Each structure stands twice: as structure tokens, then as C-alpha cells.
Amino acid sequence: MTGRGGLRPALLVALLGAVLLALCLLSLAVGAAGIPPDQVVRALFGHAPSPLVENVVWSARMPRTALGLAAGAALGLSGALMQALTRNPLADPGILGVSAGASFALVLAIGVFGLGSFYGYVWFAFAGALAASVLVYLLGRLGRSGLTPVKLALGGIAVTSLLTSLTSAVALTDPEALDRFRFFSAGTMADQDAGAVLRVLPFLCVGAVLALACAPALNSLALGDDVAASHGRRLGLVRLQGVAAVTLLTGAAVAVIGPVVFIGLVVPHIARVLAQSAGIGPDQRWLLPLSAVLAPSLLLAADIVGRVVARPTEVQAGVVVAFIGGPFFIAMVRRRNLAEV
């Protein structure tokens, strides 16, 4: 589990932590008004060279960076958890319709029921995420071959397309819902304050605890249901706990940054490659935390690139991630046996 005396895993964690820290500093420095890194560090320690620098760092970019950390970790964890629960390398909250379900429920709550507060509509996001995941699972089980990774992915794409169309239809009938839909449909951390981070954090923390607590059972589940049951694992309880974690993590993340697709797909595969190189192997006790660190790194990097490539405007982080994840998803599907569809 720990490679040669634990040294290589420790170095891997330290390296990933350093990369994430560097991206956080870049996120605070890069934007329409660039700030030198040394001034960012001074502002963080209460010695900003000017009130303008202090305001930009703390009021504008710090909430955006913190939200990228929290939501990115949530999406990475939920993707890794979904892939482990379903033993499906194509699983991702965005691909399997979970994010689309949360988005549709959010727009429904705002446009139809008139809910405007986070604590009012976040429960709709949870319900939508759960309902979509159940529907995709049932669709994936149809046919003589039963549940397969490709059928599950195709069912998710179909449900996502349907829910996206319904979301657009509801948004177009209500100006407030349309305004909010336009804001988060592409996936963005912009124009958020510190309150958004504080509101979403309790849900993400509970979801993360539930997800990480599943790790030992997921190692047994990877060997098959019969083996897991022989190890004393209560499979129904494990899956229920996993679904609850995915619902909380995905629903809360979508409620604040929108449906960012492909992070949950790409990151667990990168985590497995890095874990293998560090001698850890397919141990979910390492893969889940690694995914929780890698995902915010990818999301923050995408957000930083989006601020730079189209100055003075911005490209939303979700769009940048899609440019990376789209080809990755196609490559993954091509590796599967499409004859099973």
C-alpha cells in the first residue's frame, strides 16, 4: 500500500500539495488586473501595498479560489466514488446525468417555485441529482446483457440531453431563472462572495466524510459482490452511503458553480496512474484523497487559463475543462467493447 517504506507516497502527496498551493497563488494573482505574486503574498499576511490590491485579493479572488478548491474536491471525490461503486471507468457526475438533474431541479426551484435563497433551492439540487442517478441506473440495466459501463454512459448522455433541454425550456419562461441559468450553465466560480463558500461548505464536508468512510468497503467491492459480502461488507449499506455522498457532493457543487463536466471522469484516472507510479496500487484509501487534491488543481488551472486566453473577457472554467475532458471521454469509450451496447 505504501510503496518503499512510505517515501514515494509521501513525496507524491507533497508534490501534489505544492502544485495546488502554486495554483492557488496564481488564481489570486491572475486576472483582468494582474498582481505580482510577491504583492499577493504580502496581502495575504496583512501587508498589502495598496487598498486596491487588498480588495482584489480578499474580496474578489479569494472567494473564487476557495470555491474552486471546495467544489473541485467535491467533483473529484464524487467521480472517484462513482467509478468505484459502479466499477465503471466511464462514470462521472456530468456524464451520468447527476449534474444535469441537479441543474434542472435548481432552475425549476427558481423559475417555478420562486425560491431565491441558497438554503431554499439547494434541497432541489440534491433531489434532482438523486432522481437522475436512479433513472440512469435503471436505463443502464435494460437489455439482455444487463448493466454495462458503455450502456450506463449512453443512458447518462440521453438523460443529460433530455434534462438540459427541459432546463432550457424552463429558464426561457422566467427572466430570473434564465439569468441564473446563464450564469452557472457553463460552470464558473466568478462573481461569488465568501458567503457562497460558507453556505456550501457544511454539505461538502458531510459528503466528503461519507465518501472517505466508504474507502475500505470499496476495496472489497472491487473484488466482486460475493467477495465483499464474505468480508462482512453490507453491500446495500455501502451503496446507500455512496449514493448519499455523491448526491451531497454533486448537488452542492452544482448549486454554486454549475454543472462542470468531465472533472469526475478525468481526475480518478490520473490519480490511479500516479498511485501506481508511487507503488500504492488501486487502494481507495489513497485514490479518493488523491482525487480530492487533483480535481481542484484541474479546476483552478482551467479557471486561470480561462482568464488569460480571452482577455479582457473570460472563458468559463467549465468550457476549458470540456476541451480537456471531451477527447479523454472519446478515447475511453473507444477502448470499451461497443458490441455490448
UniProtKB/TrEMBL annotation:
Protein name stated in the entry: Iron ABC transporter permease
Keywords: Cell membrane, Membrane, Transmembrane, Transmembrane helix, Transport
Membrane topology: Multi-pass membrane protein
Family stated for the protein in its record: Belongs to the binding-protein-dependent transport system permease family. FecCD subfamily.
Any single Pfam family the record assigns to this protein: FecCD
One GO CC term, this protein: plasma membrane
Subcellular location: Cell membrane
Superkingdom of origin organism: Bacteria
Transmembrane parts of this sequence: 65-82, 94-115, 121-140, 152-172, 200-222, 243-266, 286-305, 317-334
Biological process, per Gene Ontology: siderophore-iron import into cell
Species assigned in the record: Streptomyces armeniacus
A single GO molecular function term of this UniProt record: transmembrane transporter activity
